[in-house]
Amino acid sequence: MENSGGIQASLSGRYATALFGLARDEKALDAVSASLATLKAALADSDDLRKLTTSPVVSRAQATKAVAAAASVMGIDPLTTKFLGVLAQNRRLGQLGATIRAFGQLAAAHRGETTAEVTSAHPLTATQVKALKAKLKTELAREVAVELTVDPSILGGLIVKIGSRQIDGSIRSKLNTLAIAMKG
Fold first, then answer.
1. What angle do CA 34, 104, 57 make, to 5 degrees?
2. What is the pLDDT of residue 82?
3. Among 10, 64, 149, 172, fewest CB within 10 Å belongs to which?
C-alpha cells in the first residue's frame, strides 16, 4: 500500500492507515467506507455527537459506551465500531473527522481515483456533480472522487482542490482580484 508521507505523518493519518489496512485485509473496505460516510454525515448534523468527540470532560469509559451505542443506532459495521472504541480509549475522538478524510484519500488511491475537494456556494445537483466528475476525469486522465462542501461566503462558482493544486473560480476571489486591480 503506497501512502503519501503527509498522510502517514499526521496522527489522524496513522489511525486512518491502520483502519485502512485492517479493512483491506478483512475485505471490508466498502463497509468501512459506508460507515465512515455515515459518521461524517452524523458529525455534520449532530451537535451531541460533535460534543462527544471533542469534550475533554467525557471520561474514556463514558466515551467508549457512548460511541458503541451511537454506532449501534447508526448501523455502523463491526470493524468501524471497534475502531471508534479504540479512538475513545485513546482519547482521540477529536481526530475522527481528519481520520475519515485521510481514510477517504487512502481508499480513493486504492481504487485508482484522485480525490477532489470541491467547495461551492450552494449544494450541487447530481447532474452538476456528474458533469464536474466527467470534466475532471478528462483533465486528469483518471477517475475522480469528489468531496463536496458548501460555503456560502464564496458567493458563487467553485473552488476545486486536488492534492496541492487549487483552482479557484469563486466569485469572491474574482471580486477580490478586481478590487486589488482597481486600487492600482
1. 80
2. 96
3. 149
